[in-house]
Amino acid sequence: MERHFVTSWPCLTFTINHMPRGNDSPAAQLNAATKGTGAQATADLERQARIFEMTLSFIADFVYIFDKEGRFIFANRPLARLLQRTPESMVGKNFFDLNYPPELAEKLQRQIREVLETKQIVRDETPFTSPAGETGYYEYIFQPFVGAAGTVENVVGSTRDVTERKKAAQALSESEERFRQFAENSTDVFWIMDAKTQRVEYLNPAHEKIWGEARELIQNDSSRWEHLVHPADRERVKNNLPDLLSGKSQTVEYRIVRPGDKAVRWIRDTGFAIRDENGQITRVAGVAQDVTEDKNRTEALGVTEERFRLLVEGAKEYAMFLLDTSNEITYWSKGAERVFGWSAEEVVGQSGELVFTPEDRAIEREETEIEIALRDGTAPDKRWHMRKDGSRIWVDGVMRRLDDERSGALRGFAKIARDATEQRGAEEELHRAHEQLERRVQERTAELRAKNRLLQLEAKRREMLEREILSITERERARIGQDLHDSLCQELTATAFLLKSRAKSIALQNKAASDSLAEAAATVNANAGYARDLARGLHPFELGSAGLPSALRELCSRTTESVICRCDCPRSLRLEENVAVNLYRIAQEAVTNSVKHAKANEIVISLERTHGAIVLSVSDDGEGKSRRGSGLGTHIMQYRARAAGGTLAVESSRGRGTTVTCRVAVKP
Predict the structure, then answer these.
(1) pLDDT of residue 357
(2) DSSP state of 631
């Protein structure tokens, strides 16, 4: 006979099978108990089931039972509430049916099968998100229910919400991790000691850097720490330990001697007690800092301060004083007493405006000076100041802003000044002398400018006169050349013709006289040629606005009798007559110099227009000179070049000949 009892507990349904299973089985006992009782036994059984259900419903943990297929046959109400179901709806379903995450459902079903097969208890934990979206962490246990036959008939389980415990453990772990990271990366030494055994439980890595040895040495032998303390400090430090163990926090400074390099380091050690929940001291801990550099800086600062005091007090020619942020005097040197007349007792605590003149106070000059020092770091202070006796002195000084080295906050101001009254008078006198000198220089400059203008006018007048002289000279040359050509040359030619005629007429009567007359006619004719050459030299008839190339070629032709002379000129080149005449005279003078003095074998005359200028060049292959010539011929050529508005260059070296170049700028 089989009876089923279904509870109303959430997520679990409990079914009892009443089947004969032996005297020891609960089912058999229940069946025996119900025999002969009828309805009363059934009622008692149902009453016990309700009591069982009610009892499990008040338990915060989840309680449940699975059959051999891993389906729920019982679940208490807390689990049903979590899954937002009724206990009845869970009976006969497994974790897949209840929409558990597939991976979690597979894991739980596998663990149920493991319990059924191995009869071993399974303990595990898992995160889980309820249908309401609440995520928690749960610890559960699956336990086999073994029947009389020794086989596993059911799997009984319970689950506990350990979310808060997990969070607390995680927070503790994170806190410990933060402490570990902080301690492990700190440059200060963190240490923890057991209060009872006085054994060092923890030392961070900074110990190895400061103490110079492995931290395990002290952790294994706490007494070693005492031996590393400087002998002069060892007893004093040792006597502080009882107070620390009694709960008194303390800071002590001592020296250690590092075992490796024997270096002495200063340590500042701050210790405190750690108590348990009952207030008992279980451990003492502390932070040890290497303050050697601070000690050295303090000692150096003391030396610096002493040097500063000696320097300031010894500089009696300079007034040095300090001001706080409210512009009150906090320090007054001996030099300040000498310069301003007030003693330190009279001015300390007084406003810095004390030394300013009434007119500067009226315009708040002191405030302006402070503002400049705040903005720029320094502010110049060059002005009249007051002395105690009411007299005024000219002060040359500076105000400097003072900042804290660590925080950068404003600490106040320092002022350094000296009495520069005499220097001020000397500067004013020098300034007056400078102004007077400036006036004299200006007056002299004006005079020189006037004279310079007169000289420029005179130079222009002389230049005009020189050009006029050149013009007159050229005209006179032309007149003389014309006269030679038109009169003398004609007369000589006519005389030669007459002599030749007479020689022919008397040739039969007197041959000797005829020969003499013929010879005289040849001589006169030759002189007529010389006269024509002389006329051309004085004034070439081909020279004009476009005749310079022809005149230069004619000059070459007359020169080829003694040396080879070549002319490299264009067929025509239009120039101003003044420029053409002067270029011709320069070429004529250069050729004459080459023939007479250079012993040249060849002379080349070239003329070209290039880069907005007319360039005349006369070159020879003569002996040349070791330096540029400075004779009369060169001066004449320089003069001609300036008259044409150009420049002249003479390049000559011994054994390489001479080149004369004249460059005249012309309009395009």
Answers:
(1) 92
(2) S
